[in-house]
Amino acid sequence: xxxxxxxxxxxxxxxxxxxxxxxxxxxxxxxxxxxxxxxxxxxxxxxxxxxxxxxxxxxxxxxxxxxxxxxxxxxxxxxxxxxxxxxxxxxxxxxxxxxxxxxxxxxxxxxxxxxxxxxxxxxxxxxxxxxxxxxxxxxxxxxxxxxxxxxxxxxxxxxxxxxxxxxxxxxxxxxxxxxxxxxxxxxxxxxxxxxxxxxxxxxxxxxxxxxxxxxxxxxxxxxxxx
Length: 226
Fold this sequence. Notes:
- The protein has strands spanning about 10-20, 25-40, 50-70, 70-90, 95-100, 105, 110-130, 135-155, 160-165, 175, 185-200, 205-215.
- By secondary structure, it is mostly beta strands.
- The strands form two sheets. The protein has an eight-stranded antiparallel β-sheet, with no helix packed on it. A four-stranded mixed β-sheet has the order 6-5-9-10, with no helix packed on it.
- A hairpin with a 3-residue loop joins strand 5 (about 95-100) and strand 6 (about 105).
- The radius of gyration is 27 Å and the shape is elongated.
């Protein structure tokens, strides 16, 4: 019972630097680091003791090269991203006890930890030199991404006991405790190609048309198709 603070803390660092290599070339470096924690999951019939702390960390770094010609533009980007999402009990040392309809006390029962890393290479080329029944701005390119996953899902890793009025709250009628290997790991490769034409047959009409093709080596679930 009582009032409890639900704190949210965020540290955010970002920056970007640009270098003019030549009159027609620009090179960018950028970085973003985000680190946040959030305590929540309590209130009503759930005690503060049963709250969870959610850790969310994202780090991203990218380099971009832009090359400009008289009637064309090419952009090449290489980036790296590391992502972590980790909801965990604030009081894991205390076993969970749920008095149904009255109060949930003790530590939260589940912890999860998702880690993903991504290396991405992307190239976009734009040209406006085509003229046929009006002007055309044609853009085409693609991307390839390499992803690694490291997952930890400990469901009911901290036991929780259920109490109810039928037993006069004297002893638990049910207990849940998760066993087994909570770890999961995998990788995935994403590939995408596209072409788009912005056609202006008159000075009052613009038509956009394009095609895109995407592929993933190890979708989840693996029998899903797009």
